[in-house]
Amino acid sequence: MNGNYLIYGAGGHAKVLQDLLGKLDLEVEVFFDDSNQLDNIRGVKVSPYEAAFSPDSLIVLGIGNSRVRKLLSEKVKHGFSVLIHPTAVVASDAIIEEGTVVLAGAVIQSGAKIGKHVIVNSNVTIDHDAIVEDFVTTYPGVYIGAEAVVGEGAVINPNSVIMRFSEIPSYYEIGPSEIVDGKL
């Protein structure tokens, strides 16, 4: 594998990932976007996805929408990795699966399990032994309590609180500043 990354997406989340990669002293080789609306982002070429382009480079999905991220993860032929911002705090025994990004100021506590292609946004706290399944999107300021379970593809909007032992169904959306206490 080389030190360059590919980003699939060309919107706001993709730009955040470009900044994160820069903080990790990694380069973005290209942005993939199938809409053909842009030709570059901050001097980096934008083009439709090509499986044969730089096959040894890793890719990260710069798409905020959980369902679209899932579809793209099945389409993409490149390898995925985990990206963790240098200001995030992650317990040594936390499990974080491929394609997941952990952004600035996030905290992931002991025993937490984070699935594939999850966005752990800025200043999100995931407490001990919580389970966040694949393709979940968290927005800034979210708290997920101890032993809570967040189902695949769920969207947790800014400043929401998922109390300990709570359960969020797959592809369910929690509103901004909402407090969930129990099973939905």
UniProtKB/TrEMBL annotation:
Q: What is this protein called?
A: Transferase
Domain named PglD N-terminal is located at: 6-76
Molecular function (GO) terms listed?
A: transferase activity
UniProtKB keywords:
Transferase
What the entry lists under SUPFAM superfamilies is as follows:
Trimeric LpxA-like enzymes
User: What family is this?
Assistant: Belongs to the transferase hexapeptide repeat family.
Which InterPro entries does the UniProt entry name for this protein? Hexapep, PglD_N, Trans_hexapeptide_repeat, Trimer_LpxA-like_sf
